[in-house]
Amino acid sequence: VQLQASGGGLVQAGGSLRLSCVASGRTFSNNGMGWFRQAPGKEREFVAAINWKGSNSYHADSVKGRFTISRDNANVARNTLYLQMDSLKPEDTAVYYCAAARGAWAATFATEYAKWGQGTLVTVSS
Question: Which of 32, 33, 41, 117 places its Cα 20 to 30 Å from the Cα of 55?
Answer without folding.
Answer: 117
